[in-house]
Each structure stands twice: as C-alpha cells, then as structure tokens.
Amino acid sequence: MPDVAALIQNGLPELSMAGLFVFFLVGTFVSEDGACLLAGAAASSGRISLGLAVFACFLGIFIGDVLLYGAGRAIGPRVFERRMVRRFVSAGSINKAASWLGNNAGKAVFVSRFVAGLRLPTYLLAGATRANFAKFTFFFLLASAVWTPILVGSAAYSQSLLFRG
Fold first, then answer.
1. Of residues 144 and 76, which shows the higher confidence score?
2. Distance (Å, whole) CA 93 – CA 85
C-alpha cells in the first residue's frame, strides 16, 4: 500500500484510475468534502474522468450515510438508557424526535446534507430512534446524488478556471 501522505504531496501520480476511484471512495469516510475537492481537482487535471470522480465520491458518501444510520441503530438505544442521558433527554423527547424524523425524513436528510455539522447527529439520531430505514436510505441516495456532483463539479470547474495553463 503506498504511503498516503507521499501520494497527496506528489499529486497522486502513482495511482491508476481504479486506484484513484478507491482512494476517493475511501477518502469520503475520512472527509467527505476533502475527498470531493480532491476528486474534482484530479478530474480537472485529467487524472480521472469527472463522471468516475463523482461516482466514487457519491458511492462513498452514500455508504457512509447508511453506516452512520446503522451505528445509531446499534448503539443509540443503549445510550438512551444511560442515567446521565436520561437526566437531560426524556422518553417523551425521544418519542417526539422519532415521530418528527418519521414524518420529515426528506427534509431532515436534505437540510443535514447541505448544512455543515448536522449530518452526524441527524443520521445517528435517525438510527437510534429506529426511523424507517428504507425511507432514510432513499433520501440518503437522493441527497447524495444531488450534493456530490455539485461539490465535485464545482471543484473541477474552479480548478480549471483558476489554474488553466
């Protein structure tokens, strides 16, 4: 496995297009926005096609969203049972949150996708309150399909506009 720091410092020269695809897909688990910006820059320089860069980031983001929901579902109920949490969060509040998320899944996912800092708590809470998995997965798919081309494409466009030779 190549040294990641050296790859980034040298402009990812050692990776094939398939390697870049995997790099950007896995990179979204570390930093979605960072991976998308790097993918856009790589597409702008011709290292990877824009479509493949967008798809790698989209797939990584979608998988990450589903994993966050799953993490919330796995650990959320145990967290709600903790005495410290029960002091601040009542069962009624949890039920209200679950009901709101059930009725507003699309809004919750789209707002959290486009407002920094809301994704993690929203997706974990959706899983913890056992919100409808199929509904949330559909909205994860849709929001990622809207968000990813905007971010990767904007990065590619601005890179080519600002740094054209």
1. 144
2. 12
Amino acid at 29: F
Closest C-alpha among 157, 158, 149, 163 to residue 36: 149
46: left (phi over 0), alpha (psi -120 to 50) or beta: left
Give pLDDT tens digits for 18-37: 899 999 999 999 999 999 99
Contact by Cβ (8 Å): 136, 105: yes
- For the entire predicted model, the pTM comes to 0.86
Number of Cβ atoms within 10 Å of the Cβ of 153: 18
Q: Which of 58, 49, 44 is nearest to 16 (CA)?
A: 49
